[in-house]
């Protein structure tokens, strides 16, 4: 069944295909995604003090997120390969000292959006944090990966209404 606007990943025979975006206009597109990795306070203290045996956890996770955004079409079936104009990944300790909030901001000028690139950046960044910290904290949890905003293209602006979570300050708005 075609989705809104007539775009679908199915051909007339019901087979999966990459959506043809050739007739779509090239526009500036931006997407922001966020996620959270929760952990013990002691684990966050080790990360922030540079005491993890695997090195600078935040730097490695940030680079992993950026690299993942650039390789999204290799990871997600039917996702268009895009030349990205910008990728920023920020990692911020939560106010309650129990985790790290990840935010990826991805931009391009293209015929299709960068939501998947932003979500992939957050996901791989979170997995990298887990991998680098699992030896000291097996209870790490990856959660709340979600699209926050996206702009550009025919569908225009999307803005998620953020809900405050325990341990977090209210979202700036």
Mean pLDDT: 87
State the fourth-level CATH superfamily: Molybdopterin cofactor biosynthesis C (MoaC) domain
CATH third-tier fold name: Alpha-Beta Plaits
Number of helices: 4
Structural domain count: 1
**How far is it from the N-terminal to the C-terminal residue, by CA?**
37 Å
State the secondary-structure class: alpha+beta
By CATH, the architecture is named 2-Layer Sandwich
Oligomer: single chain
What ranges have pLDDT less than 50 throughout 5 or more consecutive residues? 1-5, 169-173
* Largest pleated sheet: 5 strands, antiparallel
Radius of gyration: 18 Å
Q: How many β-strands, per DSSP?
A: 5
User: How would you write the strand order of the largest sheet?
Assistant: 2-3-1-4-5
- CATH domain class: Alpha Beta
Shape: elongated
Percent helix, as a range, is: 25-40%
As a percent range, the share of strand residues is 25-35%
Give the helices and strands as they follow along the chain.
Answer: EHHHEEHEE
Structural description of this entry:
With about 170 residues, this protein is α+β, with helices and mostly antiparallel strands. The protein has helices at about 40-50, 55-70, 70-75, 115-135; strands spanning about 25-40, 85-95, 100-110, 140-150, 160. It has one domain: Molybdopterin cofactor biosynthesis C (MoaC) domain (Alpha-Beta Plaits, 2-Layer Sandwich). Helices cover about 25% and strands about 25% of the residues. Strands 2-3-1-4-5 form a five-stranded antiparallel sheet, with helices on one face.
